[in-house]
Design goal:
Blueprint: E1 2-5, H1 10-21, E2 27-30, H2 34-43, E3 54-56, E4 62-64, H3 69-75
Parallel strand pairs: 1-2
Antiparallel strand pairs: 1-3, 3-4
């Protein structure tokens, strides 16, 4: 799982804390790097209103905060 986030993002910090509390292994990538930002935006290109954080799951699908991120984490079994 890859978590795309940015510095000083409360929602990004909240999801990181939640994942850590649940002992979920994830790789964090900061969108402060323009290449990483482009990579993250490409994942949700069909959702121009997408907002950080964005999570890309192992199967390749991605969900942003405005797309029911918490609901998706629960439905996929990531969160208990």
């Amino acid at each position: 799982m890859i978590l795309y986030s940015k510095p000083n993002c409360d929602k990004c910090d909240d999801i990181k804390k939640l994942l850590k509390r649940q002992n979920v292994v994830f790789e964090e990538r900061s969108t402060s790097d323009p290449a990483v930002k482009a990579e993250a935006l490409a994942l949700v290109a069909d959702r121009p209103d997408a907002v950080l954080p964005i999570i890309q799951f192992a199967d390749g699908h991605a969900v942003s905060n405005d797309m029911g991120l918490y609901r998706e984490l629960k439905s996929t079994g990531v969160l208990k």
